[in-house]
User: What shape does this take?
Amino acid sequence: MRPVRCHCCHVRPSGADPWGSLSCLIRPRKPLFNRNFATIAGGFVAATVVPPARTRGVAPLAYRLNPPPGWPPLPDGFVPPPGWQPDPAWPPVPPGWQLWVQDDMEASSTSPGAPPLTPGGYYTADTPAPGTNGFAIASFVLGLLGGVLLSVIFGIVALKKLRDRPQRGKGLAIAGLCLSGVWLVATAAVLVAVFVTAAQRSATTGQISKSGHLDVFSLHAGDCFQNPSGSQPDPGLAQVTAVPCASSHNAQVIARLPVPGSAYPGRAAFHAQALQGCRASIATVVDRSKLTETMKLLWIYPLPQAWADGQRTISCLIVDSSQDLTSSLLK
Assistant: This one.
């Protein structure tokens, strides 16, 4: 039987045939060489070429393609043409994987050697991917804005992905984690400062036992504090320095009046309720022998925003503008 020669045309992978279409024109020719076929692992068939007798010197070894895991099945007898490269959609070549391996027999000088692969379109463990890792960018931006939890999560994910697939962005991921750490430290410092400087109450009596800052709507009846504006409370006052009544102070809460209703009453309604209720409190709870001409009866009521936040009380105050008090005014 006369051997035949197959002239094949190789094209770029596309469509249903990922390795390219093969179309052959078979016609009788003189014997050029013999083909031996051997089955290899994975069910692929590789062809080796026996060098003709006229070949002189040392003939180069033939190479065959060794597809890594995840690539499409290799067609029988597939020989990549020079310049062939894998489809970019295929998985990257695992680290240390030999994409081209030598056949176990010498080939003629006309056998194809390992075709050079043009860089680009696929990545190996040593080839960085283009662009900057998106998780690293997100970690850095959230770290700047104080999104600590997401910044830490995205930073860890970015470092893991960059370890598996080199790409720009490692510095951004590390910076995002560092910024998140700064936010955590700053938040912890603020919380510690607030705790240290906050007023504390006795667990048994409920009275102020340690001086410190206290929200005006957290003042209880009988609490003593330093009124920062002297004889007239600041309308926008939010915090005061609460102190034990035995310490020097210039104001004391004598009563707290609940305000009924859900709609904001307005200044006139607050004034009418406070004038009547606070005056009645002086007669019932205040030691009148401790009152002086320098003392005034004042009150604090919630502004619209505080009302929307749920504050529904009027605080009645006695403020002394001329001297510091060192005892409670209550009976």
About this structure: The two ends are 127 Å apart (CA to CA). The chain is about 25% helix and 25% strand. Residues 1-118 form one domain. The chain has three domains: 1-118, 130-197, 205-320.
